[in-house]
Design goal:
The complex is a heterodimer. Chain A is mainly β. Chain A is built from no helices and eleven strands. The radius of gyration of chain A is 13 Å and the shape is globular. Classes of the chains: A mainly beta, B mainly beta. The interface between A and B is medium-sized, with 29 and 27 residues.
């Protein structure tokens, strides 16, 4: 039962362009959504989050968009940099009730 | 910046042996978690711990698994009799607030467990 789905296992983008990572969820009780970045041999690190009362949250080069009716969120990175190359995990939670549920991740490669 | 520390970074064990994975969460955090990631799969929740007791556990966290906070700083995951399918990267995480109050968890670098 994949409650959080990241359907693209990998994505390749040129440096300076926009990277768009997508995530779908099935549980309508989820009301917090997060993106984590993971480098090899390291644990996931928190990147950005959004609550269900918003449809957009921005932090520097990173913007997360939430479409509740479509149960879809996306992470935009612009401009993409080689240091952004990592695995990106989408995660979701229903407030106060469930631990984070993660997707399988998308490996982003930013090519110089 | 405060870190979650996990030891060892890599553990190889024989099937049927007991292993203990160790974690030192961030000192002012109150909520602790274990997750695992089998190679190529998603990061899966195992257990959450608050106020010296398990607050939630997944169906993966069966009788072979246990957690303990023995001394107020360490947080351990024990697997009593390891199976080949327990081979995975195990991540410890901690958070200051409950999962619904969100700024995310802080994860450790993980322990790669290999059962042979």
């Amino acid at each position: 039962d994949q409650q959080v789905k990241q359907n693209s296992p990998s994505l390749s983008v040129q440096e300076g362009r926009i990277s768009i990572l997508n995530c779908d969820y099935t549980n309508s009780m989820f009301d917090y959504f997060l993106w984590y970045k993971k480098y090899p041999a390291e644990g996931p690190t928190f990147l950005i989050s959004i609550s269900s009362i918003k449809d957009k949250n921005e932090d520097g080069r990173f913007t997360v968009f939430l479409n509740k009716s479509a149960k879809h969120l996306s992470l935009h990175i612009v401009p993409s940099q080689p240091g952004d190359s990592a695995v990106y995990f989408c995660a979701a939670s229903s407030s106060g009730n469930t631990p984070l549920v993660f997707g399988k991740g998308t490996r982003l490669s930013v090519i110089a | 910046e405060p870190e979650v520390t996990q030891t060892p970074s890599h553990q190889v064990t024989q099937m049927g042996q007991e292993v203990i994975l160790r974690c030192v969460p961030i000192s002012n955090h109150l909520y602790f978690y274990w997750y695992r990631q089998i190679l190529g799969q998603k990061v899966e929740f195992l257990v959450s711990f608050y106020n010296n007791e398990i607050s939630e556990k997944s169906e993966i966290f069966d009788d072979q698994f246990s957690v303990e906070r023995p001394d107020g700083s360490n947080f351990t995951l024990k697997i009593r009799s390891t199976k080949l399918e327990d081979s995975a990267m195990y991540f410890c995480a901690s958070s200051e607030l409950r999962q619904g109050d969100f700024y995310g968890y802080t994860f450790g670098s993980g322990t790669r467990l290999t059962v042979v």
